[in-house]
Amino acid sequence: MMKRIRVGMMSFAHMHAGSYASCLEKMPQVELVGVADEDDARGRAAAEAHNTDYYKSYDSLLKQNLDGVVICSENYRHLEMTEMAAAAGADILCEKPISTNADDARKMIDLCRQAKVRLQTAFPCRFSPAVAQVRDIVREGRLGEIVAVKATNRGRMPGGWFVDSRLSGGGAIIDHTVHVADLLRWYTGAEAIEVYAEAGTMFNDIEAEDAGLLTISYDNGIFATLDTSWSRPKSFPTWGDVYMEFTGTEGVAGVDAFIQRLDHYSDENMSYGWAGWGSNTDMGLIRDWVDCLGSDREPSITGEDGLRALEVALAAYRSIASGKPECV
Fold it and tell me: Is the pLDDT of residue 1 over 60?
């Protein structure tokens, strides 16, 4: 008989929470026990949409003998949520960025280690088949020695708490850098050592930066440029584009994480959208995490992976403040 894996959702503040909950619903071995959210209307609506129970407090949800929780709160609350989940003995999938600062991220990692619970960072782009295939090309040396990478992650401005740096940790840089920073480290095995960055607010009437350009140096000599912004219009179909182009001594390869799509134009409501025909990267992430919950293995994407990606974004902010390259 298949073991039932009991999972709870801690907060629906983040836009990805609905997708993760939908993925969990589709997995026969998973019981989505409930949604906890201090925003009563948001929590009740989420619980109703995903056919589960609503809990007004996180403590009450965590008392339900859970195997794991998905944390989708505002970024600055990730440490608080992790403390509660670790104390309850629940493994954790935490939305990115892992935190708003490195100290909190390290505390999260240490708390989970001490409590003997597993902490995974939500980086769904790793589960794009195109992204994984080009990683194999790079890792096998088919491009020769990698010299440089040109990358982008440009999306629409999400609004809400995302543009309040107190809650999110910054703007477009912290929001969009961490995805690509994680992929570059995953591809190359190299550690970022220095970042030079410039940023501004150019596209939206907000206090946070909505445009950033990073140059990242790695310990094996590779350098990468990253265009990270909230520059897309409101009608843009998704949160970002995630494109990377690798230049090696023997060749060049590019990968678009969202290439598995059809462009859909509707005359009925004069809209444009993307209809994805390929693999669901969120489902890949959730399936991988649930497999971890049902086994003794370590997470595929650890808390340390989340910290390393965050450190690139934090170095970018220090560089913007100083006007000089800053160590990671």
Answer: no
